[in-house]
Amino acid sequence: MEREPSASEAAPAAAALFAWGANSYGQLGLGHKEDVLLPQQLNDFCKPRSVRRITGGGGHSAVVTDGGDLFVCGLNKDGQLGLGHTEDIPYFTPCKSLFGCPIQQVACGWDFTIMLTENGQVLSCGSNSFGQLGVPHGPRRCVVPQAIELHKEKVVCIAAGLRHAVAATASGIVFQWGTGLASCGRRLCPGQTLPLFFTAKEPSRVTGLENSKAMCVLAGSDHSASLTDAGEVYVWGSNKHGQLANEAAFLPVPQKIEAHCFQNEKVTAIWSGWTHLVAQTETGKMFTWGRADYGQLGRKLETYEGWKLEKQDSFLPCSRPPNSMPSSPHCLTGATETSFRWHLLGKSSLMSRS
């Protein structure tokens, strides 16, 4: 989650990058592979104030600077660092195999990475076992970034899940690729034919969003989401932990989360963790929902919050397991503004910029 400081806020004396948590593969970029219990400052591999984005996958991390440079570190078994080899790297290293294009955004899946260049092109590297690189006839892994064809559409936002990826174009169309969600969908929706975008190994248009224009996309472990220009949130995929705010176990077709869940306010920003989501509305209110057993939602849950659809739509045939309850977006009291940045790297590593 990130927010640009307002003009009225006092600038800190000096910016710095800190990392802590699991570090089995050197994903914290500290030059070693020992777990770190307390925040530890990273060496200045770039100017900390120039950091635009920080993200991480199953065991690797990536940083994008304002100048479009990409730095990577951590697990590299499948070439997910894009450095041309498969050796783990315990410190942030520049990725230079990027066709000479500045990077706008990077997204890390479990064992793969996708990059978005400033001219709207998408690149990918790492494991391709589930078609998550978006190259249908490519090798099972790729150690240098390669271009993905998205029907000549300029891409403005990307996201990566466990074994799938999504992208939004300038015209508001959403594409998805990678078969990671297909097995879950078949199991939870027996007898139903899943839409093509769940089984595609190359970018496939997400159907069900034709009447909306996506501004950004998100991906969790086994779910996807999009935020439209009208401030609406659409979700699809696995709902094992209630992260889709729905009673179905699996949504094969995108469904809008009703406005009343956000107190009838437009959503202006949204973020996804592995199995939970966070949204911010036009007045700055923060809403969280999904898995909460590790405190992900920033609030204490005394009991599961029952959430019922006021209207059960016919295109939601998948039933929820009896021991799993849905979650609903809940406003965090006093959290109308965020004053820090934090990023989940993989499952249990954190990195922040002060």
From TrEMBL:
<comment type="subunit">
    <text>Interacts with SEC5. The interaction occurs only in the presence of magnesium or manganese and is stimulated by dCTP or GTP.</text>
</comment>
<feature type="domain" description="RCC1-like">
    <location>
        <begin position="17"/>
        <end position="308"/>
    </location>
</feature>
<keyword id="KW-0677">Repeat</keyword>
<dbReference type="GO" id="GO:0005085">
    <property type="term" value="F:guanyl-nucleotide exchange factor activity"/>
</dbReference>
<feature type="repeat" description="RCC1">
    <location>
        <begin position="231"/>
        <end position="283"/>
    </location>
</feature>
<keyword id="KW-0963">Cytoplasm</keyword>
<dbReference type="Pfam" id="PF25390">
    <property type="entry name" value="WD40_RLD"/>
</dbReference>
<feature type="repeat" description="RCC1">
    <location>
        <begin position="172"/>
        <end position="230"/>
    </location>
</feature>
<protein>
    <recommendedName>
        <fullName>Secretion-regulating guanine nucleotide exchange factor</fullName>
    </recommendedName>
</protein>
<dbReference type="GO" id="GO:0005737">
    <property type="term" value="C:cytoplasm"/>
</dbReference>
<feature type="repeat" description="RCC1">
    <location>
        <begin position="68"/>
        <end position="119"/>
    </location>
</feature>
<feature type="repeat" description="RCC1">
    <location>
        <begin position="15"/>
        <end position="67"/>
    </location>
</feature>
<dbReference type="InterPro" id="IPR000408">
    <property type="entry name" value="Reg_chr_condens"/>
</dbReference>
<comment type="function">
    <text>Probable guanine nucleotide exchange factor (GEF), which may be involved in the secretion process.</text>
</comment>
<keyword id="KW-0344">Guanine-nucleotide releasing factor</keyword>
<dbReference type="InterPro" id="IPR051625">
    <property type="entry name" value="Signaling_Regulatory_Domain"/>
</dbReference>
<dbReference type="GO" id="GO:0005634">
    <property type="term" value="C:nucleus"/>
</dbReference>
<feature type="repeat" description="RCC1">
    <location>
        <begin position="120"/>
        <end position="171"/>
    </location>
</feature>
<dbReference type="InterPro" id="IPR058923">
    <property type="entry name" value="RCC1-like_dom"/>
</dbReference>
<keyword id="KW-0597">Phosphoprotein</keyword>
<dbReference type="InterPro" id="IPR009091">
    <property type="entry name" value="RCC1/BLIP-II"/>
</dbReference>
<keyword id="KW-0539">Nucleus</keyword>
